[in-house]
Write a structure and sequence with these properties.
The chain has about 80 residues and is mostly helical. It is about 90% helix and about 0% strand.
């Protein structure tokens, strides 16, 4: 009679551990995405306020477009969308 209880306890503890780890990873992922979004906003604001020459602005726009595309891909991955 004790063996099924031991197995059930181990299974419940394992499920709880997986749930906690998954929740932590999801929270870290969302925080990282928010960090990247704020980084993009900073780059965009810096590029708009800069006015240090057309070559610099063009490079900033290219880099911003690249970062936005990466962010879209990461958000699609986080949402489980198959690219």
């Amino acid at each position: 009679m004790q063996e099924p209880m031991i197995i059930l306890t181990i299974a419940a503890a394992s499920l709880l551990a997986v749930a906690i780890i998954s929740a932590t990873i999801i929270r870290l992922w969302r925080d990282w995405i928010n960090y990247k979004q704020s980084e993009l906003s900073y780059v965009q604001n810096t590029a708009n306020a800069g006015g240090q020459g057309s070559a610099h602005n063009a490079n900033a726009r290219i880099e911003l477009a690249d970062l936005k595309e990466r962010l879209r891909k990461l958000e699609a991955i986080a949402a489980g969308v198959d690219l």
